[in-house]
Amino acid sequence: MRIGIVGLTNVGKSTLFTALTKVKVPVNNYPFCTIDPNIGVVPVPDFRVEQIAKVTKPERTVYAAIEFVDVAGLVRGASKGEGLGNQFLGKMREMDLLVIVLRAFLDPEVVHVEGNVDPLRDLELVLSELALSDLDILSRRLSYLEKVPKGTSLKLQQEASALKEIQGLLNRGDFKTLSEYPQEIKQTLSGYGFLTLKPMIALVNVSEKQLQGDGELLDLSKEFEKRFPFMPAIRVCALLEKELWDLSPEEREEYLKEAKIERSSLEELIQSSYRMLNLITFFTIQSSEVRAWSIPSGTRAQSAAGKIHTDMEKGFIKAEVVYWEDLVKAGGWVLAREKGLLRSEGRDYKVQDGDVLYFKFQV
Ligand SMILES: Nc1nc2c(ncn2[C@@H]2O[C@H](COP(=O)(O)OP(=O)(O)O)[C@@H](O)[C@H]2O)c(=O)[nH]1
Ligand SMILES: [Mg+2]
Fold first, then answer.
1. What are phi and psi of 76, to 5 degrees?
2. Considering the entire predicted model, what is its pTM?
3. Which of 60, 182, 254, 335 gives a 20 to 30 Å CA spacing to 86?
């Protein structure tokens, strides 16, 4: 699962990326790794891991993780190939989720490529570049499909009609209907990597002062909701976050208190991303380790086992399951069993968010 950080130039994308690469989760420091300078693996903060660890006392805790990618900046005309446009748009097609960074901070020292700060106009601009780029692919594919003799393939006919529908929506700029487009059809078109069919989050990069409460921002978020009701928006001060995550947890808390800011927005961003990707978490406990695993919602127990080891999936017998909170209340795995809280589930059991699983398997 990859999340692309996208947006215009100079809006704070790289600052945000750097901040994300510094996120540490409590108990143990997560071994952060950068796969390449623009890709970072970020742990998903999850208080349940710490709660489970309190009763099971493992040597290590391991968090689920997601990947963020700093995709280079988009410029007006990218869909027409401006500023290496096609290359960047191509990179974006590989992403599972787009985080669109919008600049709201006013800083005369930082040049704005569009001349002035206007996050909503910028979002329109970004969306229209994405739409134009999708339309380009769409029309090429459609003109190919038109040449296919009618009646030869039902599948191709269905594809053509879905593509025409999307083309109409994009031409009208109807992103709302697009965002509600049936998941099954999206799935069949996933090979095209249409940008406008990807889940998106708007990330409004504000200054520290604006974060502390600013009437202007209130108007902005009302206007945002009116014009982009289909897109969740999160406020963040990228510059502040970058400094914040260099501090120890105690210093961080102190800093936030002094700045009169409730909490870091990065956790919110990571958690929203996780939700938008339709991922859920299950946990495993071994003598030395409590670990969180992420799987797509609806995954069956047997494939969940495969996430840990292919042998576990192949030789799957059954899974013992307890909800994390019941486990914590019981005081551990053995006590949960004594209290009759463990259930036995077969391979078709749909794993639920928060399940603690123990797989029985045979090699
Ligand atoms: N004042 C202020 N400057 C910021 C903020 N976020 C980023 N910047 C500055 O804006 C410039 C561009 O940031 P960068 O992250 O490189 O933007 P990118 O082109 O979108 O990757 C840098 O000089 C940053 O220090 C912010 O929240 N407030
Ligand atoms: Mg950058």
1. -55, 130
2. 0.87
3. 182
CATH code for the domain in which residue 133 is found:
3.40.50.300
Average pLDDT over residues 44-56: 92
Q: Residue 92 sits in which domain range?
A: 2-276
Which pLDDT score, from 0 to 100, does residue 82 have?
Answer: 64
Give the sheet arrangement for strand 289-296, strand by strand: 60-62, 289-296, 279-286, 355-361, 316-323, 343-345
13 lines ligand 1 (CB under 6 A): yes
DSSP reduced 3-state for 105: coil
Euclidean distance between CA atoms 302 and 311, whole angstroms: 11
Report the nearest-CA residue for atom 6 of ligand 1: 12
**Count of the separate structural domains present in the chain:** 2
Side-chain half-sphere exposure of 136, counting CA atoms within 13 A:
16
Percent of the chain with pLDDT over 90: 57
Residue nearest atom 14 of ligand 1, based on CA coordinates: 12
Which residue's CA is the closest to the ligand 1 atom numbered 18? 10
What is the pLDDT confidence band of residue 31, given thresholds at 50, 70 and 90?
Answer: very low
Residues 205 and 315 both lie in one domain: no
Atom from ligand 1 closest to the CA of residue 16:
15
pLDDT given at position 256? 87
What length does the chain have? 363
Q: What is the maximal distance between C-alpha atoms in the chain?
A: 69
